[in-house]
Amino acid sequence: MIASRPPFPETDALRKEPLQASGLPARILALLHTGEFTTLGDLCQPLPPCEKLDADDRALLSRIAAYVKISCTDGPPTLSLHDWLALFLPPRLADAIQLHYGLQETSARLALHQVSLRDTGFKLGVTRERARQLLGLAHKALGTPLPLFAAEPLYRAMETTLHPSGGVLDATALAKSHNPAWSPLSPLGTFLLLMNLSPERLTLYRDLCGTLSPSRMENIEKSVRDQMSAAHRLLLISEIEAHLPPAVRPSSVPSATPLLLALLRHMPDTLATRDGRAGLADRDGAELLREILSTGGESPLRSIVAAFNARLHPECQRGSGFVRDTLQRDSLVRKTAPSRYSLPGGLQTHLPLLP
Asked: Cβ-count burial of 213 within 10 angstroms (0-12 exposed, 13-18 middle, 19+ buried)?
């Protein structure tokens, strides 16, 4: 089970939070201060005259005051991501957040959810600098205590989604997840937004979205790499898990195998096979190629490459240049013709006997 996290303030303490915790912009706070509003609890009272505010500011103040009043009396309502943004941000800032994080984008490509300021500005019809200012205002508002208090169900939903896979999911897997907390908006965009607001709670490591800190992920990767370097062969992922040091092993999940597999698939110099093994690509690729040749006998390079990649997860697949170079470096492999390779006859133990 995921360890429970209390909301930022308890409901009773919510009333005593300073008014700045609301995330309201300075111009609205200044008006409230003239009416002697100093805490969030004061928003439960009738609001002062707001003729000096424009329509968007009046609507924003009204929404947040209504949320505080409900939270202090009946308890905080559960908000979807769309409702959360609409509650705490004026339309212009909400649009900036949606465009910058690609919340309407269904693609699993992280690059489409990590848009540059220039691209965000282009979509908004403003300069790069203005886009930076708008996003800064939005992040400042959403990162204050009251919006984070209201976002607690969003964080819990994301942690619940990540938990079964060992605390991490790659972009493709997370993009396929569905949860009422953010649907129909993008899970990837949601993750990146929440991560930027609370980087101690959600992290991105080698394109893996997770709940483990970067230092913990680095320690896990180092332990995995050390084991593979010492083994000089393809290792079962279950073996790697069994030999993780206690200080490195994640304690919040029953099995670290899904986490290890996700990490191995995204480390650039490793091979993760579909039958649950892993190794270093430059060294242990030869072992996998010998298995292919011992089963299929003399084969053209094209067939060897296809068989090699069929045994690997997509992120670990290699091109013909890698396979050719690995075959040519292996002293046990013979080149029998241009672009054809085989093992010595005695090593092809899996070939069927001719009748």
From this structure: middle
